[in-house]
Amino acid sequence: xxxxxxxxxxxxxxxxxxxxxxxxxxxxxxxxxxxxxxxxxxxxxxxxxxxxxxxxxxxxxxxxxxxxxxxxxxxxxxxxxxxxxxxxxxxxxxxxxxxxxxxxxxxxxxxxxxxxxxxxxxxxxxxxxxxxxxxxxxxxxxxxxxxxxxxxxxxxxxxxxxxxxxxxxxxxxxxxxxxxxxxxxxxxxxxxxxxxxxxxxxxxxxxxxxxxxxxxxxxxxxxxxxxxxxxxxxxxxxxxxxxxxxxxxxxxxxxx
Length: 256
Description:
Layout: E1 12-15, H1 21-32, E2 36-41, H2 47-57, E3 64-68, H3 76-88, E4 91-96, H4 111-132, E5 136-145, H5 158-177, E6 184-190, H6 196-199, H7 203-212, H8 224-235, E7 246-249
Helix pairs in contact: 1-8, 3-4, 4-5
């Protein structure tokens, strides 16, 4: 992307869960538009992915750092914010992409299952934004990756779907609370995208989702790049009048 098109030049973006799938695509897109990037990842196995991704995005003339922190742990938000401030001195964009998905029927639910999902999908983003407030610049952006599951009522998704609904609700509250700094806060609601997270739910689940896409206007899985493009819009100057909203990227996906 040419310098004239680097509309995020000088901005600093945090992307949680940034080494795989949608997160990786978001990191690449924001960097291509000129943003310096803080790439969060969880496990030791992702360290090499983070290093490779840093080398890739540097080709856009931007800086990038990585920070290992499990969004389900209490110290992760502060650790990520400290890494961002130490490297760049400020924060402009927060993309709460890191998440976990695990489906269980209501009769099989446990407290452990609930805590695993809510700690990552809700508590983590909530306290990441809280820790960021002193460093979040005017006209900043908060972008939360939700899910079409938040609105579908898929069997077995009591905990996962409600965690994503909670994230959308938090996003609307932040739009109000942070408006005095001209910070926007929005959610992106992807439909089925074939990522590692989706594949981890098993071939039977993936096959079921594939069949369900036949009901959509565009009968296919989405791509990570298509979701990243929506994030790119919300991160840029064109979206200043968009806040407290949910942008769906699902190809007209319907669950009947």
